[in-house]
Amino acid sequence: MSVRELVVLGTASQVPTRHRNHNGYLLRWDGEGLLFDPGEGTQRQMLRAGVAAHDLHRICVTHFHGDHSLGLAGVIQRINLDRVPHEITAHYPRSGQRFFDRLRYATAYRETVALTEAPVAADGVLATTSGYCLEARKLSHPVESYGYRLVEPDGRRMLPERLAAHGIKGPDVGRIQREGSLGGVTLDDVSEVRRGQRFAFVMDTRLCEGVHALAEGCDLLVIESTFLDEDVQLASDHGHLTAGQAGTVARDAGVRHLVLTHFSQRYSDPEEFERQARAAGFEGELTVARDLQRVPVPKRQ
Fold first, then answer.
1. How far apart are CA 135 and CA 248, in angstroms?
2. Digit-coded pLDDT (tens) for 80-130
3. Does the annotation mark 291 as catalytic?
């Protein structure tokens, strides 16, 4: 059975706390695992969450600040120690190549795994598989940063009442799906478009065009809300979002499930992030992320 869920490994911003590890997020998408922004301590958080190195297929780094990338060294070495049998691809800003190189070879170890480097230099499609298209969009932060968006191809939903009306049943259902028509009946006559699911990962950034493009129509949006609204100027100065801004983005983009994360250690009441996102008008499902939490991708509508 296919699984689509977000496994939250860490939710702190620059400074971890007693209850929040540095960033780390694993998206399980059917048979693949995409690891986003492995901060310091990610390898241990993976163990606590029941995530194995064998679960990883892609590593996506938004930018090279330590809370989003210092865990790369340990994760890459664990991948090699466990001799993961499949290729793993790493995406990260090309401008940070020197940082990736240092983290990849931070200490001595034996390389046993094919790790493909696929740096990001501009907006666009990074990879296309049978299950999704992975895209990147540039964000606005003091260092170059990219957000990631995963889009499932649209499919078809067969309509039983229309199949019955045309007398199509049994093996003929599969045949019309494969061939597009059967005895003068087209696939459009007996089915409708099933919209592919959409996921986006938006970390350190001010409001910008890339944020809105990534969030548009998402079933699950993971987005930073480092600051509360009363500190909006501080957020802008340091290249971050507030909870209210994140809620507004999600509202305008028609997001179904909003996940707020990357919280500053200055705040003690996590519920205030939800209150401010709601006050901005977001009415969909909302999660204020906790370490080791699992958040399912919403079921198809």
1. 22
2. 999 999 999 999 999 999 999 999 999 999 999 989 999 999 999 999 999
3. no
Cα separation, 262 vs 289, whole angstroms: 9
Report yes or no on whether pTM surpasses 0.90: yes
Token pair for residue 243?
Answer: 């909870």
Q: Looking at 67, 204, 219, 291, which residue is catalytic? A: 67
